[in-house]
């Protein structure tokens, strides 16, 4: 694997300054949370760095890469190709940045929608994306506080609920993986 500094320089040339700044915020939060929850800090650093590596791709390019890589294209992703910046980001991370680690690639792939049975690294990247210092939206402080507590699942449930509530409020399409992700965490709590 390329050294982190090299990955960082390569990425910086690909992202708009605002997106790059967001990315560095996600890296810091992800490393901090990995430390807090006992995840691999190096994996968190790399996954955070590359999570939005396909964010600036045009919708049609995301669709082209997704179909040539045989990613499943459901009705919702066809209407909202930006949802593909996660799964396509994982492909780009592998092909352009040389990342082979499955755990890192999955955390990148699912950072936008979440998924059923998320790994600790998935959860960390998903949350870091929402709470990095540049984020400012109603409820961000409550979510930051939830992330400081011991139960990362509670923080994820709060983040999923916020997302679903927001998308519903604008009558938008909610990806089923987001519903699955939230339900899986709630079921886990009920069955505990
Ligand atoms: Fe993203
Ligand atoms: Fe992001």
Please describe what this structure looks like:
The model has no long low-confidence stretch (mean pLDDT 97). The protein contains eleven helices and no strands. The chain is globular, with a radius of gyration of 16 Å. α1 (4-12) runs parallel beside α3. It has helices spanning 4-12, 17-37, 41-50, 59-68, 75-79, 85-95, 102-109, 120-131, 140-148, 152-169, 176-191. Bound molecules: fe (iii) ion (2 copies).
Provide a quick synopsis of the model.
This protein is mostly helical. The protein is built from eleven helices and no strands.
Write the layout of secondary structure elements.
Layout: H1 4-12, H2 17-37, H3 41-50, H4 59-68, H5 75-79, H6 85-95, H7 102-109, H8 120-131, H9 140-148, H10 152-169, H11 176-191
The protein binds fe (iii) ion (2 copies).
Helix and strand run:
HHHHHHHHHHH
Number of strands: 0
Strand content: under 5%
- What Rg, in angstroms, do the CA atoms define? 16 Å
The amount of helix comes to 55-70%
The ligands bound in this entry are: fe (iii) ion
Ranges with pLDDT <50 over ≥5 residues?
none
Number of helices: 11
Give the N-terminus to C-terminus distance in angstroms. 39 Å
Structure class: mainly alpha
- Give the overall form: globular
Largest sheet: none
Mean pLDDT: 97
Please give a handful of descriptors for the protein shown.
192 residues; mainly alpha; 11 helices; 0% strand; binds fe (iii) ion
């Amino acid at each position: 694997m390329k050294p982190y500094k090299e990955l960082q320089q390569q990425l910086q040339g690909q992202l708009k300054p605002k997106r790059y700044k967001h990315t560095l915020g996600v890296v810091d939060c992800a490393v901090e949370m990995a430390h807090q929850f006992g995840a691999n800090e190096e994996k968190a650093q790399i996954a955070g760095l590359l999570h939005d590596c396909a964010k600036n791709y045009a919708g049609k390019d995301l669709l082209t890469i997704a179909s040539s890589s045989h990613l499943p294209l459901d009705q919702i992703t066809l209407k909202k190709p930006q949802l593909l910046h996660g799964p396509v980001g994982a492909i780009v991370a592998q092909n352009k940045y040389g990342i082979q680690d499955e755990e890192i690639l999955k955390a990148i792939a699912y950072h936008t929608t979440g998924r059923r049975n998320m790994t600790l690294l998935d959860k960390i990247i998903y949350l870091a994306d929402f709470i990095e210092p540049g984020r400012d939206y109603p409820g961000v402080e409550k979510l930051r506080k939830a992330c400081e507590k011991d139960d990362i699942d509670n923080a994820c449930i709060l983040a999923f609920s916020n997302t679903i509530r927001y998308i519903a409020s604008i009558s938008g399409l909610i990806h089923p993986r987001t519903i699955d992700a939230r339900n899986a965490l709630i079921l886990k709590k009920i069955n505990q």
